[in-house]
Each structure stands twice: as structure tokens, then as C-alpha cells.
Amino acid sequence: MPSVMLKKNAEGKLVFYVPKKDLEEVAESVEFDTQDKWGGEVLLGDGSKYYFEPIEQPDFPVTLRAKRLDSGE
Amino acid sequence: MAALTREETEALIQEVLEVYPEQARKDRAKHLAVNDQSLEKSNKCITSNRKSQPGVMTIRGCAYAGSKGVVWGPIKDMIHISHGPVGCGQYSRAGRRNYYVGTTGVNTFGTMNFTSDFQEKDIVFGGDKKLAKIMLEIEELFPLHKGISIQSECPIGLIGDDIEAVAKKANKEIGKPVVPVRCEGFRGVSQSLGHHIANDAIRDWVLENRDGDESFPTTPYDVAVIGDYNIGGDAWASRTLLEEMGLRVVAQWSGDGTIAEMEKTPKVKLNLIHCYRSMNYIARHMEEKYKIPWIEYNFFGPTKIAESLRKIAALFDETIQAGAERVIAKYQAEYDAVIAKYKPRLQGKRVMLYVGGLRPRHVIGAYEDLGMEVVGTGYEFGHNDDYDRTIKEMGNATLIYDDVTGYEFEEFVKRVQPDLIGSGIKEKYIFQKMGIPFRQMHSWDYSGPYHGYDGFAIFARDMDMTLNNPCWKQVKAPWKTEESPKVAVAASA
Ligand code: SF4
């Protein structure tokens, strides 16, 4: 369950950052991305997949816990 | 010498790896790569931030060096105690040339060495009492200091001293910030973790000190310069440009910086990151907690400076944008003259770099402004995100080496035959003896600043001075050069 720092980049895309892993990736897709439901499966540019418990749309940047589903390798 | 092709560079890497035993060869192979600009992500071609192989000559430092030497040390109005035996602090004392203004020993303490000078009895019975006593002594001897940081050396973690408790107590007694930093040298694989630990200590013990205190008058143009250590005056040469374009620099982290500046940083509008590697952690933290955006910039060489000034200005209003254009125009005659003078002397020369932090990628632009080409680069303690940012800066088929060993670096140089090498003090004399011009690119070889337009003029002069120095023709013994007449030595005896 890594802690992931999430922010929006200049293009409004979600950027994923895991400090100890030096992982800095743009998210390709987010399963739920509406005002009152955000989270679910997130697919990163490198092919790996993470899962966030769906919550209300958070105020980015924010640090959340994620479950790693697929390393993409 | 003509540039190596991709195949030749790959063959070179294989050849160099040849001498290692199998295990080491497998491991080192992951750290050496031929640059491929088409890649988006560096982890496809290079591995970094791993433990060095035992037995090789590596050039890395320890976590204590990263915290005390890099991040905390330059904060000039604090006293940084090298907690543990005397050597770690004494042998690294004042080595980084972080310039500052102030009266050393009275209100600033940058070049002094404070240590708890551990003896055997401190290891056996613990050093907490001694540490408490030292801090009271410091308060008495140097009443104008603004705070104390405790920089742990290896033994502190090994014997399990509770420096946090001592720090809290001392903080009450002297009424100034006292920051315990758990940067024991054995943590992590290089100085890089020391940077991270130091950032975390600032986050936990300094950054919140003025939360809720609105007495500091702010402006919409407040920025902080983060990750500029003022080597040879770098931060000053950068700061003037930012101020000329209309911004207000509230804090310098940490070259010529003070603890008050750090405490005020959460009030700025934008954080400007020069050395990403050593301070991105705190910038990311401030982004999350205080919603302060941050951007990376590069003040080496006019092309990158103009690019960076415009990028920074784009985040502000038209006055600042006009300010950026004004600054670029104002210095144009100056840097054009520098290029006109030095480019003809340096054009086409090839450079190999091996440094730390931001320089393996940031200085490339400055060399290119002078018509030079960087044909190999590498980081002592970089991570994947550094290499991600390097791939696009470097030419195709150039060499990239991570945590290069003494042997590999020498072999690469012998084959690539660069005209100039930029690396550290440990490499300097080897390459000079090989007859290759060398610049020490950690402390700018006792020169600097190299940042900003003023710095670029000095940078260009230094590179010319080194590269075109007539001494390189004298390195070979006269009787070993082609044209030396074959006079029998005996005849003259
Ligand atoms: S590794 Fe330990 S003993 Fe060596 S310099 Fe670093 S802190 Fe000191």
C-alpha cells in the first residue's frame, strides 16, 4: 500500500508520484472522476495499475494510499 | 576524433564490462547506457540509486554529507553540530564554498566546525549529556546564533542516543529552534538519502514555525529560490535576475540562507527549484500542504536562462512577463560578446561530465552555447527521475553512466578522448596526469559563480583557460614526443 502524492499538471492531467520509488508518471485513465466519486482503478503511462478506494473528489495535490494491482511488466 | 556511433558506444560498454567477475558485470551493465532520445522513460535503459558494488572505486558520499554538507550546512545563522567523532565534520569543513555575508563566529557560522568530538566513553555511556552541555555552551559563546541543528554521524544511530529528547529540552532552555537530524552516514546508498532526511527534518521542525502568523507582509510576486547553494556566489547571480524582472525573492534555500527565510517560505507564491535532486521533497510537501506550486529552472548559459525566465514569468502577470523580456534584452550585448569571444576558441570541443545533483544535465546548455558538445554524462547519486530529465538534453548515442567506477570512467575517457572533463576532486589529478584538461565542477574549481548571465562570462573564461592552456602540450616527456631528436642521454652526461 504505497502512499502516492497526486497532483494535476499544467495540462490538467493527473501526475502520480511515489517518493521512495522515484516513480513519476502521468495517469492515462482514472476509473471514477466526477465531483462526488473519485478513485477506482488508475492506469499509468508505464502500464502499471493502482487502485484507490473511491472517495469524494479530493483537493489536489494530495497524498493518498493506493493498492498496486499490476506492475505493467 | 569523430563521434562514436551507437554500435561503437555499445561495444565500448561491453569491452569495459569485460574485466568484471560475472555478478559485478551483470550489475554494472544496468548502470551504463547509450542515450536514446526516443525513450520517454529512463528506467528502460538505466538503473540508478542502487548500492555500489563492493570493491569498486565509487565517488559517492554518505547521508551525513548530504544533510550537513549540502542542505543544512549553508544556513548561515544556525550552528550545525556534527554529532559524533570529529573527523566527519573536520575533513569536510568549508569544502563546498557556499558563500555568505556576515561576520563568521559572531552572527554567521558557515565555515566553522562544531562537533561533539566523541571519545570512547561517549560511545560506551552514550552522548546525550554531552550534547545537552554543548548546546548550553554554544548559547553562551555565540549568543547571536538563531538555532541549532544536530547532524548525526554514524555512531549516534548505532548506540541509540535519543537526540530528539535532548533537542526538545534544549529548545525550551534556549528558546530557539533545535533540530535533530537522523542523517547517520550508513543510511541509504549515497548522500541522496541524506538530502531527503534533511528535507524531512525541515518539514517537521522548521516549516510550521510561523503558521498562523500573518505579520510578514507579502506581495503577489513573492518567490523562493530552492536548491541553490551559492557555490562561489551562484545564488546571488541568480537572485539579481529574478529581482530585476520584478519578483521578490523571500528566501534562498540554502546558500546564504537563514532560518527566518525558511520559516517564511510557506508564504510565497511560487517555489523555484534549481537543484531538483536535493530539494524536490520539500517543494512537493509545500505544494500539498500550502498549495504553493513549484517549477524547475536552469540558469546555466543564456539559452537556458532566457527559457527559464520566460517559463517563470508565464506564471505571473504582464508586468513580470515584460520584466523577463527586459532582463533578457538588457544582458544580450553582454552575453553575445562572451559568445563572440570564446566560441571560436571552444567550437566543436567535446566534454565528458560526471557530477552530482543537477549539473550532469543542467550545464549541457551552457556548453552548447559555446559551441561545445557533451558526449558523456552521469550522476553520482541520481535517481530515475533525474535520468528521465537527462535523456532529452543529451545527444543521441552519447554515453550515460550511473555511479561510474574509477576504472570505467578512465576506460571511457581513453576511448572517447574528450577535450575536457568536468568532474570532482577525486578524478581531477588522474585525468590531468593523463594529459586531459579538467575542471572541478563541484566547487567550480575555486572559481564561480557559474549561474546567471554574470556567471556565464566566468564559465566561458574558465573553460577556455583550462582547455587552451599551453601546459597540456608539455605533459609528455620531451624524449617521448615524436619530434624530439634522438640524442643519446649518455652523450650529454
Ligand atoms: S559514513 Fe559515517 S563515519 Fe563516514 S563520514 Fe559519513 S557519518 Fe561520518
State the gist of this model.
The complex is a heterodimer of chains A (73) and B (493). Chain A is built from no helices and 7 strands.
Give a description of the structure.
The complex is a heterodimer of chains A (73) and B (493). With 73 residues, chain A is mainly beta. Chain A has strands spanning 3-8, 14-18, 23-33, 38-44, 49-55, 62-65, 67-70. Helices cover 0% and strands 60% of the residues of chain A. The two termini of chain A are 19 Å apart. By secondary structure, chain B is an alpha/beta fold. Chain B folds into three domains: 1-60 and 333-493, Rossmann fold (3-Layer(aba) Sandwich); 63-210, 3-Layer(aba) Sandwich (Rossmann fold); 222-330, Rossmann fold (3-Layer(aba) Sandwich), CATH 3.40.50. Helix content of chain B is 44%, strand content 12%. Chain B has helices spanning 6-17, 22-29, 63-72, 87-90, 120-125, 128-141, 154-159, 163-174, 191-205, 234-244, 259-264, 276-290, 302-313, 318-346, 359-362, 364-369, 384-391, 406-416, 425-433, 452-467, 489-492, and strands at residues 32-34, 79-83, 114-115, 148-152, 178-181, 222-228, 248-254, 270-273, 294-296, 350-353, 373-377, 399-401, 420-423, 438-440. In chain B, helix 1 packs antiparallel against helix 18, helix 9 (191-205) runs parallel beside helix 12 (276-290) and helix 13 packs antiparallel against helix 14 (318-346). The model of chain B has no long low-confidence stretch (mean pLDDT 94). The interface between A and B is medium-sized, with 12 and 14 residues. Residues 62, 64, 88, 153-154, 185 of chain B line the site of iron/sulfur cluster.
CATH class categorisation of the largest domain in chain B: Alpha Beta
Query: Which small-molecule ligands are present, each listed once?
Result: iron/sulfur cluster
Query: What proportion of the residues of chain A is helical, as a percent range?
Result: under 10%
Residue fraction in strands of chain B: 5-15%
